[in-house]
Amino acid sequence: MKKTIVASALLIASMNAMAFGEAGQWSTGWGQGVSEYAAVVSNGNELYIACSDDAPVSMTLTVNGVKYGSRSKKGFDLVIDGQEIQTPYDTNSMVGENNFIYVWKKMRTAKKLQAKTSDGKTLNLPTNGAAQAIPATLESCSSEFSR
User: Which end of the chain is more exposed for a tag (fewer CB within 10 A), N or C?
Assistant: First the structure.
């Protein structure tokens, strides 16, 4: 019985350790050479950005556990203060690179931030803490185009 309780407690603790960010705000972290930025709405709903020196920027939107964006066949757009930017994670062209740089800068000061998925879902993302979490410069975030 004690082994079952200990095993259950360890499982719950490890699940909590895998979660990144606090609901209702932006968070930042770093691990294994990757700078991470997340706008967390709730469990299973977030915008996650990963930057590293070894790979181009990756942006993943998760809505009700379904992933969109980088490395997904499902896409998303961002709406920042009423202006829609299509596929901001698609950085393999000069236009795409410029869109990503624009989004990066605008997210830091956004009053309203939304994501719209290719299958019609809308997710209101937090803006609280964005200026503190997202660096003013793109030091470790590079586009696919500029690699």
Answer: N
Where do the DSSP E strands lie in 1-146?
25-31, 34-42, 45-52, 58-63, 66-69, 76-80, 83-85, 113-117, 122-125
Ranges of each domain in the chain:
22-133
pLDDT digits (tens, 9 = 90+) for 49-83: 999 989 999 999 999 999 999 999 999 999 999 99
- Classify residue 72 as left (phi > 0), alpha (psi -120 to 50) or beta: beta
Lookup: tokens for 108: 């830091």
Distance CA 116, CA 21 (A): 21
Confidence of residue 140 (pLDDT cuts 50, 70, 90): confident
Rounded (5°) CA angle 121-143-81? 40
End-to-end alpha carbon distance in the chain: 55
Task: Please answer whether residues 114 and 122 qualify as being in contact, where contact means their C-beta atoms are separated by less than 8 angstroms.
Answer: yes
Span 22-49, pLDDT tens digits: 899 999 999 999 999 999 999 899 999 9
